[in-house]
Amino acid sequence: MELHQLKDLLTEKLQATSLIHATISAPRLKSNDLRRIKVKPILLRDTYAIQLEFQHERIIKHENLSIEEFIVRMDQFFDEFRQFLFRFETEEVQFQLSKKMKVSIKTTVKEPIQAELSHNRKKSHLLEDGVPVPFLIRLGVMTEEGQVKRQKYDKFKQINRFLEFVEDSIAVLPKGRTLRILDFGCGKSYLTFALYHYLKIVKGFDLNVTGLDLKKEVIEECAAIAADLGYDDLSFRVGDVHDYDQDTEVDLMVTLHACDVATDVALARAVDWNASVILSVPCCQKELNRQLDCSPLDVMLQHGLIQEKFASLATDSIRAELLTLVGYETQLLEFIDLENTPKNILIRAYKNPKRPTEEKIDRYIAFRELLHAKPYLERELSGRLGQISSKLVQ
Ligand SMILES: C[S@@+](CC[C@H](N)C(=O)[O-])C[C@H]1O[C@@H](n2cnc3c(N)ncnc32)[C@H](O)[C@@H]1O
Fold first, then answer.
1. Strand 81-88 vs strand 91-97: parallel, antiparallel, or unpaired?
2. Which of 243, 317, 325, 356 lies deepest, with the highest CB count within 10 Å?
3. Are 185 and 262 in contact (CB under 8 A)?
């Protein structure tokens, strides 16, 4: 069978939504740290999609694609991997690709089964509605019986979503010592409590968590709740993220909607303190909106609404790129459904020191110059960036 015929066969079966699961393995290059890709169909907000689980040597990442996008990506997987196993409803298709892309294929008829499409029930419900959790009761998200209050359901979903990211990051966190975790701009500290509950109480990690916020009364209230719950290794401080100097090493830095450049300060401190993991959901960032000057984009930027959204997306792209340049594997991921909040991008950065290529540095500079941007984060990271390339000193 020729490769194009194989692709037609897979396309037909994928389009018939008969996939149960698939595994793509045996990378062609030994240096490829992506060892395996697990594939399964899921329902994403009632739409059929294909979920890829990328199993790297140290970490696992997920990506959801439409059938069409997955079919296009298959070409890349054919180039990079040799072994493929697809389980469809009534048959299993196993094939290998040689160096010269010759196909050896084996098809086996199987007992019919149906795909389990519910989206990852276990993962999206790390905290269950109906199961009492002390901090959620104390913060007024749940009743004493463990029922999530209707008006707090979005908050509950947000906490659960965030914990999914925490769970995915565990593999990257250091082992065998106390973990240091900071939440900058913690506010009422739903996430700070959730982190503590999940990592300490459910998973049993030894850790030390601090939430920092400007608001004295809110912080006092959080400290009182922590004391009531007996959360001895969770502390709260009143303070400005700009002045915070209580740590020199941090393992996990978290921010959720830390206003404006408070997010940038948190990202920069996380880099300074060698955080292994950064999970940051930015809030508004007005700086670039004021600086934007790019006439080729005037068709878009003439509209205030579009300019604001563009500035916000460009800011997060710049943040992600800067983190990559200073040695983080960075992804921008959907945090929660758009209908809940427009602030739904999560920056996930895993420390992975790698010197950026000149091409990457130039690509970043070209983007920044195109927009006439003078990013706050770039200034905050100027020491590190200057060590990487003199071109990165503004
Ligand atoms: C939108 S609230 C988010 C609170 C919390 N992270 C959450 O999502 O529920 C932003 C918080 O950041 C805090 N904040 C803003 N700028 C700050 C700064 N420079 N230093 C410390 N906290 C700051 C505010 O006081 C506020 O509580």
1. antiparallel
2. 325
3. yes
Distance from C-alpha of 281 to C-alpha of 267, rounded to nearest angstrom:
11
Residue bearing tokens 């979503």: 161
Q: Which two tokens stand for residue 173?
A: 């966190």
Q: How far is the CA of 189 from the centre of ligand 1 (A)?
A: 10
The residue contributing the CA closest to ligand 1 atom 25 is 214
CATH numbers and ranges of domains, the chain: 3-106 (no CATH), 124-392 (3.40.50.150)
Per-residue pLDDT of the chain (394 residues; tens, 9 = 90+): 899 999 999 999 999 888 999 999 999 998 888 999 999 998 876 688 899 999 888 777 788 899 999 999 999 999 999 999 999 988 999 999 999 999 999 999 988 887 777 654 444 478 988 899 999 999 999 999 999 999 999 899 899 999 999 999 998 999 999 999 999 999 999 999 999 999 999 889 999 999 999 999 999 999 999 999 999 999 999 999 999 989 889 999 999 988 889 999 999 999 999 999 999 999 877 889 999 999 999 999 999 999 999 999 999 999 999 999 999 999 999 887 655 555 789 999 999 988 899 999 999 999 999 999 999 999 999 999 999 988 887 6
SS3 122: helix
For ligand 1, pick from 181, 217, 220, 257 the residue to mutate: most ligand atoms within 8 Å of CB: 257
Q: How far apart are CA 60 and CA 350, in angstroms?
A: 11
Contact 286, 348 (CB under 8 A): no
Neighbours of 378 (CB within 10 A): 22
Distance, in Å, from the CA atom of 58 to the CA atom of 29, rounded to the nearest integer, reads 17
